[in-house]
Input
Amino acid sequence: MTEDDVTLVVSRLDTATSVTVITGAGLSAPSGVPTFRGTQGLWKNQRPEQLATPEAFAADPTKVWEWYNWRREQLAGCQPNKAHQVLSRWSRSSTPATVITQNVDGLHERADTARLLRFHGSIWELRCWHHCAAGETSWWDDTVPLVPCPPRCPHCNGIARPGVVWFGESIPQETLTRSLRAAHCDVFFTIGTSAVVHPAASLVHRAKQHGAFTVEINLEPTPASGDVDVSLQGSADQILLAIDEHRTT
Ligand code: NAD
Output
């Protein structure tokens, strides 16, 4: 990352009338939350792709819930970092940024981010696995660990499932529509995401097609790096802080 890159990004931000940011697991890494693609994200040598699916849950709900209980326990001890705080400020500025997150950890919410679009739901919410009428709407439960395991639906006493979007499931239509709309912006950031999980990974390309100035912040190059206007390599918390300190709006 050069001083010139930061100056260019700041000048675009200062004149933008609409700003959209999509965040991934790397944004929460400085808070101590493991990412999925690194080895730290592994649990009992199982890949998330083997656990975060409807098929895995149908086959063994207790095993999947033990994994979620393990993740919830890790998250309970984590705090929002400087990157969450900067984005919260941007979401409340005179040109409020729209923040879309793939993270399910609740750290953007704890940093008080306005109008957050949660692409993949929340690990702190539960829904009825059996789609009972009252359990279609998710409910909040931050008990750690959840007991019994698997937890029950308070309405029908059937098994409850995590209120997240699993691999192979669709993004809630309203969230998708609002996110696609938000991609029509002046400046679009993609931060701390490996840019391989679609449709989230497509948003930066859509933004670029619509004329947005696009910026990536990541520790390493991703499939999106070649397509963005500026690719800033480094930790999301440090880079966002550096950009924020130079902003005049
Ligand atoms: P990912 O694990 O695939 O990729 C993380 C990316 O962050 C990598 O490209 C890595 O280089 C980058 N990174 C790591 N530390 C960073 C830092 N300090 N600063 C900047 N970048 C950093 O995660 P993903 O792209 O978000 O996508 C995968 C899916 O994983 C999503 O659906 C998400 O729901 C889920 N997930 C969520 C969490 C969470 O809620 N915190 C954690 C793990 C995975």
DSSP finds ten helices and nine strands in the chain. The chain has a mean pLDDT of 94.
